[in-house]
Amino acid sequence: MERKVKARGDRLSDLPDGILLHILSMLWWDCKAVVRTSVLSQRWRFLWKSVPVSLDFESPNSYSEKDFIASTNRELYYWRSCQKIRRFRGSLFRYDNSYVKDVDLWVHFATKIANVEEFTLLFDSDNHPKYELPNFAYKNTLLMSLILINCELKPSGSSFGNQLCEADIFEPKDYQNENPDLRLEILAPHIKYFELLGFCDEIRLRNLASLVSAVLCSNFDYIVDEERNSEAENGYLKELLHSVANVEDLELGPWGIECLSILELKGWQSSPSSRKYLKLDTALEQSDVLGICSFLQSSPDLETLVIDWYNKKRRDLLSRYTNEDERIKRFKTHNYNCSLLHLKTIKIIDYDGPLSGNKSVLPLIEYLLKNATALEKFIIAAKFDGSDVSQDYVKMAQEFQSFPRSSPHAELSFRIDNL
């Protein structure tokens, strides 16, 4: 008997809207591909408008800035009908004041029309003039992630919404404050990730109850009076550390470590914290060891310690308080009562320089091995330039294994990386 096959239409188009939208959402990385599906059939014509997308507008170096801006503006006109835009990222290689209205349009689209959750605005060139974030952008209530690079901040009593949970502020020296009695305060009870980079002496952190991770690789805007400047720096660091005392992950830059050593000499001790991960960016000079050991005392729950070698010229403010011999003597005689009961992993990465006879690195290594009773891994990753491995590194790799340790399970390794 001859079977009759009933003609069927497009099976994919027969699926419910919910399933089709789920399929289209898998193309989140290519929003234009989502829009192109509108030509498949009448059924697909308007589906793309309900798909959450991310918009990324990045100006290539070889592309005309004006042409790129014009193209972006045209595209934004069509995206106005999209019901959900999660992220907006705008990037220009070089900013010029003639672009202010165009960039304002981007900011307005992202924060007022699309109501994005994540907003990034960056300018690769750090030359002046810089783009000034308009006041209306501070009043967004849905923004959860904010990244600004080479922008000027001039808030006038406004604030970002209380949903903000991630913020990266690069070069906050471009926050302009014409009134010395006013400071920029960041109040974000829902923020989870925060980075503070550049000069930032006029920025204060308040009510960061949900903060999980903080990066404080900031610096201080110098003034003529060095003694007064040092006191102000130390006070500012204490404020910052108090503001991020509840974080699990903390990264501290060279400026902060230098101030910690000065504060240690003055008898100040950081309050205990619950941090589990600590990264220190430092060249590990003798002056740094005092501050590091003192800071470790306030980290009883620490599980991972990473020391990232910062081999750049720095100020030597500590020399105004004590000389090198006195610092060495203080380290040897001072009782840093520190039981690192939970510290399991220690890494010194990108180490550069001789190790034999080093007056800061070796004492710190011995100190950590002595106090980390639960240590499982201690890794030193040294780097060298050239084809021949330094004999100093080879010697120290062998000597490293003979260092006494309080943890019977500790594995010590010395890795050498070619530049």
UniProtKB/TrEMBL annotation:
The lineage of its organism: Eukaryota, Viridiplantae, Streptophyta, Embryophyta, Tracheophyta. It holds the Pfam family LRR_At1g61320_AtMIF1. Residues 337-415 form the FBD domain. This is F-box/LRR-repeat protein At3g03360-like.
